[in-house]
Design brief:
Layout: E1 3-4, E2 10-11, H1 13-24, H2 31-40, H3 45-57, H4 63-77, H5 82-91, H6 105-117, H7 121-129, H8 138-146, H9 152-161
Antiparallel strand pairs: 1-2
Helix pairs in contact: 1-3, 2-3, 6-9, 8-9
């Protein structure tokens, strides 16, 4: 059975499979992501289902392996909150394993703050001498972390520990 691609073309299993393989070329996609992309290209849902089944049988789609790889990459990057990672995984249709429970969100938040605000005793004193003490305001740090999805408990803990550095 053929489906119309445009006025001149029709979707077939072969053309849908070719499109799917083209989409999978640059990077691994989850089953959900591939489904969405094929659907956006007006591939009929029946063909999407057939192509998906074939790709699964060939191990070209493997959401479990992709979940592990994506989670590891997010965690190793040390740039994101637990909430952010969970949301990105959910958007991709990937499961989040228990491994995320061991993610040290506090250390990641501290690292990001140090990069963003350059907080150290020497720099803090230098900033105060130059009249830039608002650079280290508690409010700025709270908004910085909150807007990146860090947990309230993480933000409170950092504010408590960094209290002497904050205005």
């Amino acid at each position: 059975m053929a489906f119309r691609i445009s006025k001149e073309q029709e979707w077939t299993f072969a053309s849908a499979m070719e499109q799917a393989l083209r989409l999978l070329g640059p990077r691994s996609l989850s089953t959900l992501e591939l489904r969405r992309k094929l659907s956006q290209r007006s591939v009929p849902s029946e063909l999407i289902h057939d192509v998906e089944e074939k790709l699964l049988s060939l191990s070209y789609l493997d959401d479990e392996e992709l979940s592990e790889e994506a989670l590891r990459a997010y965690m190793e990057a040390e740039k994101h909150s637990t909430y952010y990672i969970r949301e990105k995984m959910r958007e991709r249709g990937l499961a989040v394993s228990y491994v995320l429970d061991d993610y040290d969100e506090w250390s990641v938040a501290v690292k990001l703050l140090e990069q963003r605000f350059h907080i150290s005793d020497e720099e803090r004193l230098a900033a105060i001498e130059e009249g830039e003490e608002d650079k280290f305001s508690k409010k700025k740090i709270i908004y910085f972390l909150k807007n990146r999805g860090f947990a309230v408990s993480t933000i409170q803990s950092i504010c408590y520990e960094w209290g002497p550095y904050l205005e």
